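Batch manifest, entry 17 of 40.
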Amino acid sequence: MVLLHVAAVLAVVLVAAKAGREAARRLRQPEVIGEITMGLLAGPVALAVLGEETFAAVLPEAVLGDLKLVGQAGLILFLVGLAHHMRRGTRRLPGRAVGWVTVGSLALPLLCGALLALWVTTQEGAAVRGTAPLPAFILMVAVSLSVSAVPVMARILDARRMQGSAVGALTLSSAIVIDAVGWLLLTLAICLSTSSANGLLHSLLALAVAGACGLALRAVLATDWARRLCVRAPRPAAVALGGTAISVAVAVEHVGMTAILGAAVVGLSIPAGRCSPWDRAVESVTRAGAAVVPAFFVVTGVTVFSGTLAATPWGLLTVTVLLGIVGKAVGGYLGARLGGQSHHDAQQVSVLMNTRGLTELIMLQAGLQSGILTPPLVLAMVVMALVTTAMTGPLLARTERLGARTSVPVGPARGAPRAAARHGS
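Output type: structure tokens
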């Protein structure tokens, strides 16, 4: 009966996610925005409409726990594809311009994140600040404001046919590098959150376990027999890859680190290249994860945001959104200009680098699980991620219109001879 209950709730969640994607498409927004928004709001809205008793009967603790496992499994599988995409993308970096855009889009957002952490420490109470050590808290908040969503950015570029343009290649390559650095800083923040020597040893042990699993998996997948197996039986290879990712993620979480790190290690360990047979298996794993990852959003909305909406100060929301926009927009623009890009291209870079989406939620989940971030602060950053990502499409369209308007050639002045106008003098 519990399994049937979980299946029924999951079916409702997937239907709601599809409705969210359709609404986002009609609003000319990335589909993931509608999916995330619908998932996060589903729990709090249902709780407000049904009441606590009816809501508890519809979604009891046992069913919510199983739904959480499904959502975490989907998140792990989806993250495998994201990490693998990052590894493939780092081989095609254009060069000097990427370096400047990466520095600008990473350094200034990190500074804005540090300012936000200090503002929370001095202006907000313990309910928002939490009890994490100050270095870990500052680094975690800074990292959360610095990431960019590679999958959402790739979808936006594909929808606007910019994936082959210079701006598209520049922003996507920079975002890949920024997210790779972000994962390293996230791991460092989690290690710093352990104030005791035993906690630090557990974190180092978890990193060692994750690294050993990644090296072992890479060695196995690179063998000839593994490649032949993947070519001859792609579906069993995808199942085995997904099972390995979940196993490694659970093992890393068991020894004291977030499961997200284990999933990222698996994705980075898969052989990449134009002729890699594992790309098809990774694509299947990613699709499977994306199919059930809406359950992760619903569980997050129920467990984190149901009692947090009223407890989150409006001042915190405002400051978080403003610093998030300023860090990425200004940093991306300055980096692009220093990298030799035109004013118009730099504007597009700054708009695209402001995209966050699912990558932001994954890192916030890691910060919440490790006890560094509190639910009110996570809610403020989720709002920031949704606002900045929703801004990307309209602002990008505006920059395109302005660029087309300024590039229109000026005709002959009024009163000029017709012959001169005909000959283009």
